[in-house]
Amino acid sequence: GGKYSTLTNINIAWNSIGSDKLNSTLTKIDLSNNKIGSDGGKSIGEALKLNSTLTNINIAWNSIGSDGGKSIGEALKLNSTLTNINLEKNFIDSDTESLLKTICSTRETNIYLSI
Known about the structure:
Elements: H1 20-23, E1 28-30, H2 37-50, E2 56-58, H3 65-78, E3 84-86, H4 94-106, E4 112-114
Helix pairs in contact: 2-3, 3-4
């Protein structure tokens, strides 16, 4: 394993995760390589529909699959603040990849999509 393969505890206490405060201040998050999976990808899509401050999200290497990718695509139609999203190495099929590229190219706000 990697350098941190034996991590047993992480403390992110007192950061108001899930609160309106976090949703109104967080601008960048890196969740890459965390085994999020399809259900997690769908949850991220739902969260992105509501978020109005996040500009950069990295969810590469998480096996979100095409269903997670489609959910994120739906969110990108509504979210106008996100300007950079990394979805590399997520087992997203070519149809969903094309859908995501189309959504990104038709947004009023420019977005850099890495897939």
